[in-house]
Amino acid sequence: MDKKKLYIKTWGCQMNVYDSQKMADVLFPLGYAPVDAPDDADLMILNTCHIREKATDKVFSDLGRLREIKDARAGSKPLIAVAGCVAQAEGDVIMKRAKFVDMVFGPQTYHLLPEMVLQANGGARVINTDFPVESKFDHLPEQAAPGPSAFLSVQEGCDKFCTFCVVPYTRGAEFSRPPEQVIGEAKRLAGQGAKEITLLGQNVNAYHGGDYDLADLIAAVAEIDGIERIRYMTSHPRDMNDHLIEAHRDIPALMPFLHLPVQSGSDRILERMNRKHTAEEYLAIIEKIRTARPDIALSSDFIVGFPGETDEDHAATMALAEKAGYASCYSFKYSPRPGTPGAVMDGMVPEAVKDKRLQELQALLFAQQTHFNESAAGKTFPVLFDRKGQKPGQLLGKTPYMQSVYVNAPNEQAYARLFGEIVDVKISSAFQNGLAGEIVTSEAVLSKKSA
Ligand code: 5AD
Ligand code: SF4
């Protein structure tokens, strides 16, 4: 079989990272092997994100570069494809404005990629932004090599319709994969060496597959041999039910870290965002979670400058962040997304005001993050080494609380053996974005492995 080169550039969330992996898996039987640069690729895919502004502009600017490569190529020309949420939302515009693009397809159709590639290789321009009746999950091959920490998509789409968000439009209605399918995939990942599984979904705690809710699913995955760590994201406060909170108390493999976006601390803005809860209700939920799992680390997303946001509303957001006490957060300036209710609301906030509020909020959130990391200094945590560092001998991993940790392996042999293992690390220094430490249990791990 001819070897062909596949270049995929991924923007956005973990769901897109997972999707890109699946695209590579689907194309593997056709002879496509992944490469890191587009220069001599045969198929170039931009897997795009539409969540915040300038997404389409960025895609067009990247497409310009790919076009130059295509034009300069002698002989058979590479295929250029746009996938993901910009493709879903603006597929027609892309097809019209960029005639050199061969394929445009949305997040629900990549199981049909082999067919689309055949058509495109035959000279057709392909656009596929349907929400097909059959699920792509029934047609996807197994992942080749998942690594020690694997993602597993269990739920997609969203029915919440927060007024700032494009997800209900780009990813469609909420859909949960059947639990047997998820558990089957988790077993395969464990069989291939994954120790940590992150269950993914746009609104993952709304999962409802057959009789299973997310807590049931976590309990089932925790039973699988080899799975030592489970995480899930992203959650909505309204779906943080007691069963799931109890899972944080009862299931040791469920890691003590939770990403629970609040977006704003002002009830008036939460209402305009259609979040369907108040600031007080959110704080009560995290209180309950902390009672169930006292050491849990929390993170959130915030949007500043949503239409109608006053200085007083912003002060309420600052107060909520202060009370909640986060380990790490993402914060954004509101950007109006075409087709969403927020984009046509009264009271657009000037950019300069958004900038000032974002700076103020980020100063607080970064201080909280630094404080959280500093509180780790001198302590020992089990760390799963799932990445290799940039310098020789350097390994990167994660604490149970999602902090990145790097260590220098004592020697080359240890380096090879520690990768993919969960090892006790004593934290020697803390930074805003991570930790550094020393391995405590290398002897034990080395002898276990070489036994
Ligand atoms: N503007 C700014 N931030 C947004 N997000 C989603 N839509 C918008 C928007 N229109 C943020 C939210 C969400 C995260 C993934 O992106 O905080 O939780
Ligand atoms: Fe978007 Fe999340 Fe709201 Fe759904 S719950 S509309 S994905 S922000």
CATH class of the largest domain: Alpha Beta
- How are the strands of the largest sheet arranged? 2-1-3-4-5-6
Q: What's the rounded overall pLDDT mean?
A: 91
Number of helices: 14
The ligands bound in this entry are:
5'-deoxyadenosine, iron/sulfur cluster
Layout of helices and strands:
Elements: E1 4-10, H1 14-27, E2 32-35, E3 43-48, H2 55-72, E4 79-83, H3 84-97, E5 103-105, H4 113-121, E6 126-128, E7 149-153, E8 155-156, H5 167-170, E9 175-176, H6 179-191, E10 196-200, E11 208-209, E12 212-213, H7 214-222, E13 229-233, H8 242-250, E14 257-259, H9 267-272, H10 279-292, E15 297-304, H11 311-324, E16 328-333, H12 351-374, E17 380-388, E18 394-398, E19 404-408, H13 412-418, E20 422-430, E21 435-439, H14 442-450
Parallel strand pairs: 1-2, 1-3, 3-4, 4-5, 5-6, 7-10, 10-13, 14-15, 15-16, 19-21
Antiparallel strand pairs: 8-9, 11-12, 17-18, 17-20, 18-19, 20-21
Care to describe what's here?
The chain is built from 14 helices and 21 strands. It is α/β, with parallel strands linked by helices and about 450 residues long. The chain folds into 4 domains: about 120 residues, Rossmann fold, CATH 3.40.50.12160; about 110 residues, Transcription Regulator spoIIAA, CATH 3.30.750.210; about 120 residues, Transcription Regulator spoIIAA (2-Layer Sandwich); about 70 residues, OB fold (Dihydrolipoamide Acetyltransferase, E2P) (Beta Barrel). The longest helix is centred in the last third of the chain and has 24 residues. The chain is globular and about 60 Å long. The relative contact order is 0.08. The structure holds 5'-deoxyadenosine and iron/sulfur cluster (SF4). 5'-deoxyadenosine binds next to strand 15.
